[in-house]
Amino acid sequence: MPEFIADFFRQLAEDHPRWNFIFFYEPVEIQRVLSGIGVTLQLSIVCLILSVVIGIIGAWLQGSPIKWLRNIVQGYIQFFRNTPPVVQLLFFYFALGQFTPTYSPDGWLEIPWISNVGWAIISLSFFAGAFNVEIFRAGIESVPDSTKEAAEALGYSRMKSYIYIILPLAFRVSLPALNNNLVNLVKTTTQAIAIAVPELLYQCVTIWNNYPSAQYPAMLFLFVFYIGLVGLIVMGMNRWERQLKIPGYGV
Amino acid sequence: MMSWTEDQPMVSIKDVHKSFGDLEVLKGVSMDIMKGQVICIIGPSGSGKSTLIRCVNALNDIQQGSILVEGQEVNDPDLDKLELRKKVGMVFQQYNLFPHKTALQNVMMAPIQVLKQDKAEIEKQAYELLKKVRLEGKENSYPGELSGGQQQRVAIARSLAMNPDIMLFDEVTAALDPETVKEVLVTIKQLAEEGMTCILVTHEMGFAREVADMIYFTDRGVIVESGPPATFFDEAKDPRTKEFLSQIL
Q: E-strand spans in chain A?
């Protein structure tokens, strides 16, 4: 942080005590915010990727000829779509967390194999993944049967035609809806605060608990940060959408 | 299964029955196609002609009867579909190209992804095939940028890239405007002259008369009449055939 910015905020806090942007000039608090941003980005990116993978696999299983497999996917979607994500986080961490094996590096501490960050990643990925399955399924249904038939006639197996033909087309159709869901996912990462994952919201709450004068500034910062982060994602996704556009094709 | 030799029919269809639910669309159809023959199947819509050729490469299953393709039984739950589809190429009414790939990629995809052929080699072959269907210069166009007739010729090249022994054409000119019909027919005719075994479902009577070795007229799930074009068109015996021909010619 350049010195003159720190000086500006230090002066601001002196002149207007309710606008104490302490996390812009106090090194300890700067560090807190930076590490919070780091965890939020890590959580967002990992969950984003995993949820898309879950969506792709789930949508493929949903088209399976085996009924019980389809039922499992359906059950999974119903569970994760119809329950609040914060309840899922609590359930994964407190209920399932009890059963995870632990290890002890020093002979004293018992550390579970899956940390709270790990559970947040698992829980949020499955949460967003459930929506992604439905999003991709809609995309797959938009691929005409005649196109699938052409692939079949050329000797493509179900798996190969999914990978090389159906998915690339379905993905393009799904992008706008996927875009929305991923934005939601990034915002939902703040709910990991419920299991004490030290992401940005957690760090900001800690700051304003220590310095009540930093409460408004921290909230303002949160809003600005998330507007920026989501804005970036939307921009990136829109650009990707344009790049994937097929010349002369409706989608 | 005994091994197939060239003096036996390449495709042998025997007493094929096919139903969609309660609706029986094929009610005992039989025909033999020898290597190098060009067969045209004509008939009113709903008569089961498209269904019949879709059964030949197992896109539709059949309930009864037998279809042998080079000695391989298609009506078999353990059918090796890939093996069958390597032998039988198919071109559809709506072209059904893969819209996210260029013309060249459309031709190259299946040989690379399904047959695992060498990319450099198949690329050379794909250029030649596109040249053969007179689409030089269109290699890097996407299907959406091509006219219907051009797309259909890409589809033909795509099928040929699999190096099939038999080609099925399912009303391939029905979706085209009259001017472009010809460019597709010329391509098919060229194939036929090179000795490709072809089964065509078509409404192009002039074309059928010109290229076909045998014409089959189907109506309501059965073959009503068949014969070489000269006798078929000029000396049709069955009243249903006569009525159909009088409407269409």
A: 102-103, 111-112
Residue-wise pLDDT for A180-235, tens only, equals: 999 999 999 999 999 999 999 999 999 999 999 999 999 999 999 999 999 999 99
Q: Do B94 and A247 touch (CB under 8 A)?
A: no
Question: Which of A151, A156, A169 minimises the CB distance to B100?
Answer: A169
Is the CB of residue B89 less than 8 Å away from at least one CB of chain A? yes
CB A220 within 8 A of CB A22: no
Weakly modelled stretches of chain B, pLDDT under 50 = none
A36 lies in some domain: no
**B145 and A150 in contact by Cβ < 8 A?**
no
Q: What percent of chain B has pLDDT over 70?
A: 99
pLDDT at site A160: 94
Which tens digits make up the pLDDT trace of A6-55?
Answer: 999 999 999 998 899 999 999 999 999 999 999 999 999 999 999 999 99
Cβ contact (<8 Å) for B100 and A157? no
How confident is the model at residue B249, as a pLDDT?
Answer: 66
pLDDT digits (tens, 9 = 90+) for A207-222: 999 999 999 999 999 9
Provide the number of structural domains found in chain A: 1
Domain that holds residue A53: 41-197
Predicted local confidence at residue B2, as pLDDT: 57
pLDDT of residue A102: 83
- Choosing among B69, B114, B151, B162, which should be mutated to test the A contact, i.e. which has the most A CBs within 10 A? B114
The reply to whether residue B114 touches residue A152, judged by beta carbons under 8 angstroms, is no
What's the sign of the alpha-carbon dihedral B211, B195, B164, B1?
positive
Interface test with B, best of A142, A152, A154 (most B CBs within 10 A): A154
> What is the interface size between A and B, counted as CB pairs within 8 Å?
74
Query: B98 and A147 in contact by Cβ < 8 A?
Result: yes
The residue among A8, A23, A10 whose CA lies nearest residue A217 is: A23
Classify residue A18: in a domain, yes or no. Answer: no
Residues of B in contact with A65 (CB under 8 A): none
Q: Which residue of A has its CA nearest to B96?
A: A147
* B57/A157 CB distance under 8 A: no
> Would you say residue A130 lies in a domain?
yes
Cβ of B57 and A169 within 8 Å? no
- List of residues 6+ apart from B70 with CB closer than 8 A: B4, B10, B87, B165
Cβ atoms A128, A51 nearer than 8 A: yes
Kindly state whether residue A187 falls inside one of the protein's structural domains: yes
> What is the H or E stretch that residue B26 is in?
strand B23-33
Contacts of B21 (CB under 8 A, 6+ apart): none
Three-state DSSP class for residue B17: strand
CATH number of the domain enclosing A95: 1.10.3720.10
